[in-house]
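Hello forum,

I keep getting stuck at the same step: I have a sequence, I want structure tokens, and every attempt I make locally crashes halfway through. Rather than fight my setup again tonight, could one of you with a working pipeline run this one for me? It's a single chain of 106 residues.
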Amino acid sequence: MVVTSEHGPDCFGLQGLQAIGRLIIDMYTAHVVRATANPKLPQANWDDIDVFLPGSQRYRIIKDKRFDVSNAYREHRVCPEALAEAAARSVMLFRPSMMRDVESAG
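Reply #2:
Ran it on my machine without issues. Output:
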């Protein structure tokens, strides 16, 4: 697990990702990374990337009616119920604001 602050990741070395398995990023991160169009940054459409939608982001998408954002990552999503199972073969990038979602997933 890689924990970040509101200012960015403390550690985001992707060199060993293939040995670890999968990288799980939240939808906001996936959206920002996509906007950079930087092919060196992990993109949601890569085979070893999954996208998680935390409750706070889900709320914001519903409130703002931005279903286009969540729909763009639908095929890459990992559901909260699947996080515990994915933990053994994944690294998850998350911010402290997502802790409740991660803890409730088991």
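The first helix runs from residue 17 to 20. If your local run keeps crashing, start a new thread with the error log.
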